[in-house]
């Protein structure tokens, strides 16, 4: 069994379509989304439509929950800009779209075969706000993840691809489909990388498994156009963050 794991689309359907085209060429048996799928980008309705058509399991991310409730449960400041984008995003979604998002799950388990399972969440198994970075100390990661024998754990939230061994368990982050970014620059702009990220995990066979991180280029000009024609607030500021392919 080969499972494609996507996360953090953030309403970037141009990037999602590129990933889905790549997945179709990879002999994948199942697709799982780790949340933060809709809020932020210029294509919230289009992204919902893709996920509804895929009928794949989707985890509830912190941005998904905030989109529906307006209640910030983490540490991010709710600025005027964020509030305006949220209001616009909601205006693009039907009642059926919002109900679809409301049915996202806190976590998803995929059975991989005898003695192995894939545990899917957004931040950690207990909170979609938990942050696990590559530089997070191992003891802190173990505290947040609570790994068990025979588990492959996967979460998103940080938009950074990583893999971490946890004894007889393993954790990986597939990166971000719609918003992979480089460190902030001196001018305050956070450059968004011109590719979409995801991962494919293969079910363990005799104790061995395969994990592949993928980066898929897509048409950044098409994404820029989607912002320019969307009516999304602060579109110019968002467009400025997207790096052109080198």
Briefly summarize what is shown.
The termini are far apart. The protein is 30% helix and 22% strand.
Question: Can you characterise this structure?
Answer:
There is one protein chain. The protein has 246 residues and is an alpha/beta fold. Helix content is 30%, strand content 22%. The protein is built from eight helices and nine strands. The strands form two sheets. It has a five-stranded mixed sheet, with helices on one face. The longest helix has 13 residues, at 80-92. The mean pLDDT is 92.
Number of strands: 9
Give start-end ranges of low-pLDDT stretches: none
Largest sheet: 5 strands, mixed
What is the mean predicted local confidence, pLDDT? 92
Percent helix: 25-40%
C-alpha Rg (nearest Å): 17 Å
Numbering strands along the chain, what is their spatial order in the largest sheet? 3-4-5-7-6
Note the overall shape. Answer: globular
Distance between the first and last residues' Cα: 35 Å
